[in-house]
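Format notes (please read before filing issues)

Several people have asked whether sequences and structure tokens are stored in separate files. They are not. Every record keeps both together, in the order shown below: the sequence lines, then the token lines. Line labels are part of the format and must not be stripped during preprocessing.
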Amino acid sequence: VHQLFVIRKTDNQIIRSNTTEFIVSEPIYIAWTIDWEGIDPGKQNLENVAKIADEYKVPLSHFFSPRTLINLKIPESRKKEILNWLKNRIYNNGDEIDMLLHFQFDLVEEAGVDAKFKEQTWDNGLSGYDIPGTVYNYDEYTKILNWGKQKIIEAGLPAPKGFRAGGWFINEENLRAVKDTGFLYDSSSIKPIELGENKMLQDWNVTNITQPYLISPSNKNSISQSTDSLVEIPINGGDSYISSKEEIMDNFTSNYSSNTSSNTSKLIVYSSSPEWIETGKESLENLFATVSNFRYDIDRGPIKFVTLSDWYSNNVN
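Then the structure lines:
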């Protein structure tokens, strides 16, 4: 709450106005994150993602998979198109690059680690896509992370600042590797979702109102007392492929009530995979159209669309 009054001075008198109170809200940040799965997402799908982002002026946080760069099923000419699309988004639209890893066998072995072929999967696949990264130890995970970062940099993209694990499966040992390889934040936490035919469930305790926190090295669901800890950024807004239209909106309103002020800043994170963008397109457009009525940049409210890197730079000391 702030107070404002005006004083007018002349040669003969001083006049003071009545005091007016007004409220300034803390920002409500919204981030739309894009999970690349290591395959060609398709030209039309990327165009649809860009169309939504441009219409509502939403910068994108691309959790890009370095497997896209080694996937033998993607022609070299197409890889160049994908990279050019990404570079255009980054340098002309304010997008950012983070990194996502599914642990496909070809990616793991390209990184110089022995792939684990007999581990439990969530969907009985053949590529290793659906094997949780938790089957790899600290040294193996570190090696894969460093390889992935280097591939992204060699492709002419900025070094990724954040990480997300495929299927949202990650343990404390993996998270230690994420921190030790120079990532500033992890964004693998989500309200547990049963995945695939085998209904494998993540062991996160977050909800749709959980805010970013310093993650304890010994328990990923606990807050660390050390300011040097890795920052965990939950996907508290939902995933557009899995979450219903109602859930997508409810996750927003659980964090902020329209036309009100907030005493604390909040971050609401949504995720989408470009390969399946059509499934959640209506939900996202409904969300962005609604919350755009309360945007800060048009002086209508506290909503700010940001990348995760933007949020981190402005909110983490």
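For reference, the curators noted about this record: The chain has a mean pLDDT of 96. The helical segments are 43-56, 76-93, 105-110, 138-154, 172-180, 245-253, 277-291, 308-315.
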